[in-house]
């Protein structure tokens, strides 16, 4: 597939891959890459860099929202081939090394196969290399204090939003009013029947209760553009998007855990 690159602000691009997104932040010739798609997205990833006038050598750093296979796919490739540092929250560093794995298992998928969209999604995951493991050999914690912007193109600020995984982070771009939300807050998914701000179906989360709590953290960030790990760009107050996701999550709980 070809990369679907959408410019959402000056130097900021949301790229749609195989049912997953990554973000390119560009300043001059230098780039910060947030997430890397599935392993099978590598040609599209490289193509997306070329489309914005960059190259793998121009990637100053890879930032990972969380170390699931659909976000970590080419991180080790860039680190090994080009010396690109791969940064994550300290709690997510061992996850990226695959010291452990906080991800939906085959058993989870089988138990949820009756839900609309799950089987087609699972077939797609296999085709995209989503069952492969590509651990990052030498992932690194963020080179800045908590709450401080990283000295990288886009000046992203990591914000810890645990629940989907222990070390999940969103990235706030205060000057642009943008939140890169990973899988803590999405605007759609192949297994979801609704569109717009929501959390992923419950079986994808390591600790669903913490995902819901982290919506308050996201809602406190100043911004009016949401770049999710799944789904299209969402425009409107980030606080309202987080509140809508929280309300939908509460309705799902009252309905006994059914899909939204």
TrEMBL record:
InterPro entries documented for this protein: Metallo-B-lactamas, NDM-1-like, RibonucZ/Hydroxyglut_hydro
Q: Which CDD domains match?
A: yflN-like_MBL-fold
Q: Which SMART domains did the record assign? A: Lactamase_B
Q: Which Gene3D superfamilies match?
A: Ribonuclease Z/Hydroxyacylglutathione hydrolase-like
Question: Which stretches does the entry tag as region Disordered?
Answer: 235-260
Superkingdom of the organism of origin = Bacteria
Boundaries of every Metallo-beta-lactamase domain copy:
19-230
Pfam families, alphabetized: Lactamase_B (PF00753)
Q: What is this protein called?
A: MBL fold metallo-hydrolase
Which species does this protein come from? Answer: Streptomyces rubradiris (Streptomyces achromogenes subsp. rubradiris)
């Amino acid at each position: 597939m070809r990369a679907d690159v959408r410019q959402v602000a000056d130097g900021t691009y949301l790229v749609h891959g195989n049912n997953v997104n990554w973000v390119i932040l560009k300043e001059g010739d230098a780039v910060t890459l947030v997430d890397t798609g599935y392993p099978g997205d590598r040609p599209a990833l490289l193509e997306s860099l070329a489309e914005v006038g960059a190259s793998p050598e121009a990637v100053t750093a890879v930032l990972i929202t969380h170390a699931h296979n659909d976000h970590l796919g080419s991180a080790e490739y860039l680190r090994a081939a080009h010396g690109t540092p791969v940064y994550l929250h300290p709690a997510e560093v061992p996850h990226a090394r695959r010291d452990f794995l906080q991800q939906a298992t085959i058993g989870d998928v089988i138990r949820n196969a009756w839900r609309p969209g799950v089987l087609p999604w699972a077939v797609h995951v296999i085709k995209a290399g989503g069952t492969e493991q590509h651990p990052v050999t030498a992932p690194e914690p963020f080179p800045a204090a908590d709450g401080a912007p990283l000295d990288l193109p886009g000046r992203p600020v990591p914000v810890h939003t645990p629940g989907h995984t222990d070390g999940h982070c969103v990235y706030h771009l205060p000057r642009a009013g943008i939140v890169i939300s990973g899988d803590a807050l999405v605007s759609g998914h192949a297994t979801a029947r609704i569109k717009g701000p929501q959390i992923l179906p419950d079986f994808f989360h390591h600790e669903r209760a913490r995902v819901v709590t982290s919506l308050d953290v996201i809602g406190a960030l100043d911004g009016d553009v949401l770049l999710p790990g799944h789904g299209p760009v969402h425009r409107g107050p980030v606080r309202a998007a987080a509140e809508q996701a929280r309300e939908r999550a509460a309705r799902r709980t009252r309905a006994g855990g059914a899909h939204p």
